[in-house]
Backbone:
């Protein structure tokens, strides 16, 4: 029979397994989903420490807000949230609470990263959405008991790898002494020790071994010292790392001698130290459990506990998929029950009416994130998208692509578009600065733009330090980074370009990189040029139509425009007409299916809104 001591002794092998599995492609996909914007790390029970660690890493290394929440807490917050990614940490991903949180996330248009031991083919079908990426992690050596132990460490190491953090220096075989504890604990921790503090609280509360409160070193000074003075049976547990050592020592020096203080510490800085403390925290229940005759791996579970665990509650929190109006309200920063909803409903009806009578002469598409998922951007479009685009060409209208790509897109399109259609496939490469049709050959060389060369010189300190990578091809510069978020890259380029003399450039941020082009370039200028060649209305489709998105200007330049992901707040254009759980290529396939021939003319026929219940 596996014991808690067996689970603890298996932590080193679990740690090593997490350093080698899963494959890098799963981590890259998760990394792209988590690249920018807020993150809500969702976990129940024992997985909460890994969620706390994920939230801390995201705020530290992506400079974006992050919060660790329970499934119910997320479900309650979701209607008030604007954008972000939901990171779900669940070893088996089978509990209805977890599944419901994922469903609410998808109904609300959030991307979801699921970290679990199960493969995607073994999961609920909702996880097969394009809005979801699954990271399948190694299972514990043996199995976890009542408490999540090895699985929590594995999830924590995987989270570290997603954020490109090296944790190989964590000591795995150091002897861990279990400190003497009372049945009332006040755990004091700093930011680097938060995951370990959460772990202590969860383990001791779930086993009923002790009452635990968690606070930080300064919040201890705001009233909690009074309770500490009145309850001498309280043990104060200081969690200490190099970043908190000075404050911890000064705080401890102010406490009276009669206060029972126990310290768990690490001499290792950074994330490796946080993980060492997490491992130490997992040993904390041993002495209390032995003294109270409790088996941590298999405690006695009361009957009402099973009833609580399986309590159905979903009907108390109805969740409807976002419709086009709800997406616009969210883009405008308005609550979904806002009084402005009627304004947007009327605006959609007017936009739909105008769209249905417009003569469509062609379709202009963004590529990465629209025709192919960003994580699969170096693969050809799916057969569904290929068929949809060939159907558009067979309608007799043009198809254009406005993309930051260059020769790779030219090559990929030639790989599957029949040669008889090449002359009607138009390319605005390098964000519209290089224009040709698919039947034309790519130019061998392009002169480098002097303004981009000047910008590169200003960015040289960051390139030399390998903080960023810089590539210039003709009239486009592309920035990448393993450490800076897309938002940070965009801000950096915009800032240095603003130095005197001001460089006439445009900064375009995509989901995975930053492109810089001449001020007179851009997808929107390519649209204007293409409209003059085609005549008639152009249906324009992109995925980043929000203010600041790299498709914003292009979608704002055409009334007949559709987003397959984020839309703008403009009520006259840039509507997302797909179901909430459709994104990117799946939403594009739906949008293109709305192109129909009517009396020899091609028309775009958006769906009508569902009727809303009238309240009196």
Residues:
């Amino acid at each position: 029979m596996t014991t808690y001591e067996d689970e603890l002794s298996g932590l080193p092998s679990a740690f090593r397994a997490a350093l080698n599995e899963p494959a890098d492609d799963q981590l890259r996909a998760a990394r792209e989903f988590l690249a920018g914007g807020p993150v809500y790390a969702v976990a129940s029970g024992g997985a909460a420490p890994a969620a706390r660690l994920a939230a801390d890493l995201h705020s530290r290394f992506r400079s974006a807000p992050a919060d660790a929440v329970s499934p119910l807490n997320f479900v309650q917050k979701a209607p008030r949230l604007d954008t972000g990614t939901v990171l779900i940490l669940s070893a088996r991903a089978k509990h209805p609470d977890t599944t419901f949180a994922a469903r609410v996330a998808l109904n609300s248009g959030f991307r979801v990263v699921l970290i679990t031991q199960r493969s995607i083919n073994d999961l609920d079908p909702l996880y097969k959405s394009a809005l979801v990426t699954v990271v399948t992690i190694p299972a514990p050596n043996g199995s976890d008991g009542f408490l999540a132990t090895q699985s929590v460490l594995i999830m924590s190491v995987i989270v570290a790898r997603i954020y490109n953090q090296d944790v190989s220096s964590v000591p795995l075989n150091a002897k861990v002494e279990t400190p003497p504890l009372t049945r009332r604990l006040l755990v004091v921790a700093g930011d680097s020790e938060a995951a370990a503090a959460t772990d202590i609280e969860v383990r001791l509360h779930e086993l009923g071994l002790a009452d635990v409160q968690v606070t930080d070193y300064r919040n201890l000074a705001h009233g909690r010292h009074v309770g500490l003075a009145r309850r001498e049976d309280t043990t104060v547990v200081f969690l200490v790392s190099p970043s908190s050592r000075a404050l911890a020592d000064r705080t401890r020096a102010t406490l009276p001698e009669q206060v029972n203080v126990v310290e768990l510490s690490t001499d290792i800085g950074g994330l490796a130290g946080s993980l060492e403390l997490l491992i130490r925290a997992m040993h904390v229940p041993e002495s209390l459990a032995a003294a109270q005759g409790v088996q941590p791996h298999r405690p006695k579970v009361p009957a009402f506990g099973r009833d609580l665990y399986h309590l159905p509650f979903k009907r108390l929190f109805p969740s409807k998929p976002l419709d086009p109006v709800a997406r616009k309200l969210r883009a405008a920063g308005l609550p979904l029950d806002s009084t402005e909803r009627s304004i947007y409903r009327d605006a959609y009806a007017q936009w739909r009416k105008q769209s249905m009578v417009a003569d469509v002469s062609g379709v202009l598409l963004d590529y990465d994130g629209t025709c192919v998922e960003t994580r699969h951007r170096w693969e050809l479009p799916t057969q569904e998208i290929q068929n949809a685009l060939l159907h558009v060409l067979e309608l007799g209208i043009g198809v254009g692509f406005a993309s930051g790509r260059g020769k790779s897109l030219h090559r990929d399109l030639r790989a599957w578009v029949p040669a008889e259609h090449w002359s009607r496939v138009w390319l605005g490469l390098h964000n519209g600065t290089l224009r040709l049709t698919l039947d034309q050959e790519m130019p061998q060389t392009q002169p480098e733009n002097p303004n981009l060369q000047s910008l590169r010189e200003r960015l040289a300190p960051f390139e030399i330090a390998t903080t960023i990578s810089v590539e210039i091809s003709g009239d486009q510069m592309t920035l990448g980074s393993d450490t800076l978020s897309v938002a940070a890259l965009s801000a950096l380029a915009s800032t240095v370009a603003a130095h005197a003399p001001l460089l006439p450039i445009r900064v375009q941020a995509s989901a995975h990189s930053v492109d810089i082009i001449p001020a007179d370039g851009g997808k929107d200028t390519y649209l204007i040029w293409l409209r003059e060649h085609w005549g008639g209305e152009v249906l324009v489709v992109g995925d980043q139509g929000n203010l600041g998105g790299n498709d914003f200007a292009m979608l704002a330049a055409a009334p007949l425009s559709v987003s397959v992901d984020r839309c703008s707040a403009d009520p006259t254009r840039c509507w997302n007409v797909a179901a909430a759980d459709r994104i990117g290529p799946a939403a594009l396939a739906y949008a293109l299916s709305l192109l129909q021939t009517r009396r020899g003319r091609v028309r775009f026929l958006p769906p009508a809104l569902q009727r809303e219940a009238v309240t009196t």
The radius of gyration is 28 Å.
